[in-house]
Amino acid sequence: MNYTKISLALALGSTMGWAQTAEIGTWAGFRKAATSFTFDDNAPNHVTHAAPAFDEYGYKATFNLVVNWNPDWSGFQKMADNGHEIASHSNTHGQNMSGEEASSKKSIEGKIKQKYGTITVAYPNCNVPNVSALQQNYIAGRICGNGQEVMGKDGPSDWFRVPAHMTGSTGSFNNTNAFTGAMQQAIQKGGWVMFLTHGFSNAGNNGNANYSPTDLNAIKGALKWANQNDKDIWVTTFRSATMYIKERKASKIEAQDGGAEGMMTFELKHNIADNISKYDYPLSIRVKSDWKKVEVTQDGAALESKIDGGYIYFDAVPNAGKIVVKNADAPAPESSSSAEPESSSSSEAVESSSSVTALPIQAFDDRHTSAYVDASGYITVQNAQGLNITVFNSLGNVVRTTKGIGCEQKVFSGAKGVYVVKIGSKAWTLNIK
Question: What pLDDT, in 10s, does the model give residues 107-128?
């Protein structure tokens, strides 16, 4: 099963109602499983080779930095701006990072700006340090393997001992089949599998990441396979997978009374609270309906949605306001998500699905907003809470207007071609392929 069923009483009008069922996807997009790739020791080729391999498919990975090993801070900041997670791997990479839990976090946050800062950690030599200090600074910590690397849908039994498959020359995870085999196991189990990689055996400068080098082509092959099986496997960061699991386990959907005819209204809530993360990662929702065209909003912000197999699918953010699903079985306005933008010959000018225009960059509340096309073809933004978002097609016509909610948000999916995404005064040129 890849969803959680919650019955809702949804009113169509003052005189008519029925029992409806909303479902929270076990994994984003109602996929069957999740996988996360993590990279240790801030190798130069993590910037020059690893990140581009993931960006080719709109995937994001987690990169664990050792503060005193002189990371390419500018390079890793650009990766964070493009949706990758930058996490802690201690200050010194000693046998045990006890005493460096808070200081390594603070040091990385002084150099790298990203949503919530640095909130996951990977332990040097896989030795778990002071658990109390970990709990005060992070939402999860990664060890090496413990024989249970393919976890269930609810993650590990201990969030500060999250297991991962070691990749490279020290074990069997040095070819594409090994990676895809583990992902297939996760799909069969409905669970989550994570990989731990240092440097590469055949790509660029490893710097200090010399332990157990991995064939980069093996990872590229695994990513290609994942992209071909995107309906089943969610490739995401350690941070996002952790947030999604914790939110999904804690969330409830509450029906709202008094909905107008042709309208469903409800809220998605959880009560998770700590000083590290707001837990506002979007959860995937579906509602059974025979409506042919819908408009979905949350707190007035337009949400991307689709209808498939008698269900309405959309992502919503817990605790972010009222969700309204409206029957819009009428000609859609030009600005709706169902608009079919015309393609343009200028699409050849954009070679990467996540290329960024050289337009002025403006910081908002010390945030680094980002926009990219994910593996499913959605234009996705990060760190845009409360900001106005506009998507233009290649002719300069507006095809989407909304506002930012949550730490990540799908804002448009349409015809192939070039689009400009504007968040405040910052803009990106993106290519949906």
Answer: 999 999 998 899 999 999 999 9
Residues 6+ apart with CB under 8 A from 43: 50, 198, 199, 200, 204, 205, 206, 207, 208, 209
Nearest C-alpha neighbor of 103 from the set 135, 140, 132, 137 = 137
**According to the model, what pLDDT value does residue 29 have?**
96
Distance CA 2, CA 31 (A): 7
Record the tokens describing residue 242, joined without a space.
Answer: 């952790």
pLDDT at 360: 34
> What tokens does 155 get?
């993650």
Spell out, as residue ranges, where the chain has pLDDT lower than 70. Answer: 1-20, 257-259, 330-367
CA neighbor of 400 nearest in space, from 333, 322, 354: 333
Backbone angles phi, psi at 74, to 5 degrees: -65, -45
Sheet holding 311-316, edge to edge: 3-13, 16-25, 283-288, 311-316, 305-308
Q: Is the Cα torsion angle 259, 280, 372, 28 positive or negative in sign?
A: negative
- Give the Cα separation of 388 and 188 in Å (integer): 41
Q: Are 222 and 180 in contact (CB under 8 A)?
A: yes
- The verdict on pTM exceeding 0.90 is no
Please say whether the beta carbons of 268 and 222 come within 8 A: no
Torsion angle, CA of 148/374/424/365, rounded to 10 degrees? Answer: 10
Pairing of strands 62-65, 408-412: unpaired
pLDDT at 120: 98
As given in the structure block, the two tokens for residue 151 are: 């976890």
Nearest-angstrom CA–CA distance, 168 and 170 = 6
299 secondary structure, DSSP code: T
Residue pLDDT, tens place only, 344-396: 323 322 333 333 333 333 344 556 888 999 988 999 999 899 999 999 999 99
Spell out the residues 6+ positions from residue 228 whose beta carbon is closer than 8 angstroms to its own.
none
Q: Which residues, at least 6 apart from 389, have a Cβ–Cβ distance to it below 8 Å?
A: 381, 400, 401, 402, 403, 404, 411, 421, 422, 423
Nearest Cα residue to 426 out of 52, 81, 47, 80: 81
pLDDT given for residue 171 in this prediction:
83
Q: What pLDDT is recorded for position 52?
A: 97
Distance between CA atoms of residues 276 and 386, nearest Å? 20
> Is residue 214 helix, strand or coil?
strand
**Could you tell me the CA-to-CA distances from 380 to 57, 93, 124, 125, 307 in Å, in that order?**
13, 35, 33, 35, 19
In whole angstroms, what is the distance from residue 318 CA to residue 328 CA?
Answer: 24
